[in-house]
Automatic annotation (TrEMBL):
Metabolic or biological pathway: Metabolic intermediate biosynthesis; chorismate biosynthesis; chorismate from D-erythrose 4-phosphate and phosphoenolpyruvate: step 3/7
Keyword Amino-acid biosynthesis: yes
Gene for this chain: aroQ
Species: Veronia nyctiphanis
Record's protein name: 3-dehydroquinate dehydratase
Keywords assigned by UniProt, alphabetized: Amino-acid biosynthesis, Aromatic amino acid biosynthesis, Lyase
Function: Catalyzes a trans-dehydration via an enolate intermediate.
Length: 144
């Protein structure tokens, strides 16, 4: 069975309490459970990781690339949070690991502050899904 890595960046551990008017009331645990249920419908397994540390996210992308080469990994659903708009290092990790990534955002970043309109990850991602709440994760998994 192939796996999908659900990778979440900084502050996503605060889902459900942080700005619920933008991000909703679902928790990260709810997101992870939804991803597991969706993946199971497609005969996929899911590994979930959230980190507030850029280096840990980079290491996870590197490991996903290795798993892809072994035939164990399908790809990564990645909500990099604010790192989306700031991290060349994450973009380089995606490119270097040669792992397929779907960039995901809970809110529609294009309706928000102008600095959120630019993503360093989009040019190295297979696709981008934004603005559908936590259903964005479902759409990403189903897109594989």
């Amino acid at each position: 069975m192939k796996s999908v890595l659900i990778l979440n960046g900084p502050n996503l551990n605060l889902l459900g309490q942080r700005e619920p008017e933008k991000y909703g009331t679902s928790t990260l645990h709810d997101v992870e459970q939804l991803c597991r249920e969706t993946a199971a419908k497609h005969d996929l397994s899911v590994t979930c990781l959230q980190s507030n540390h850029e280096g840990e996210l980079i290491e996870a992308l590197h490991q996903a690339g290795k798993a892809l080469l072994k035939g164990d990994m399908l790809g990564v659903v990645f909500n990099a949070g604010a790192y989306t708009h700031t991290s060349v290092a994450l973009a380089d990790a995606i490119k270097g690991a040669n792992v397929p990534v779907v960039e995901v955002h809970i809110s529609n970043v294009h309706q928000r502050e102008s600095f959120r309109h630019h993503s360093f990850l989009t040019p190295v991602s297979e696709g981008v899904i934004a603005g559908f709440g936590i259903t964005s994760y479902v759409l990403a998994i189903e897109g594989w």
